[in-house]
Design goal:
Length: 97
């Protein structure tokens, strides 16, 4: 498990991410600097990238968008995401030891 990029508090998963907006496609990358790299198509304007990130994380963790929020880093690229009661843990988070 990539324990250095996430942690649990009760039923809530906290995930450290580094967001790269305005890419050709959405995607989850590797872990660098203790953060998961996330590529987003949306530009960082009017909260569009943040909305896309929340939707992407809700889909990846099989939960409702209302259960995903940005704890810190709303205006930056480095963010801490909280996911309350995720429905599943995606393979990309479990893959490496």
């Amino acid at each position: 498990m990539k324990a250095h990029c996430f942690y649990w508090r009760g039923n809530t998963l906290y995930l450290k991410v580094h967001v790269s907006p305005q890419n050709r496609r959405n995607g989850i990358g590797d872990v660098a600097g203790g953060r998961v790299r996330v590529r987003l198509k949306a530009p960082p304007v009017d909260g569009k990238a943040n909305k896309e990130l929340i939707g992407m994380m809700a889909s990846e963790f099989e939960t409702a968008k209302s259960r995903v929020w940005i704890v810190t880093g709303v205006r930056g690229r480095d963010k801490l995401i909280a996911i309350d009661c995720p429905g599943s843990i995606p393979p990309w988070l479990e893959d490496t030891p």
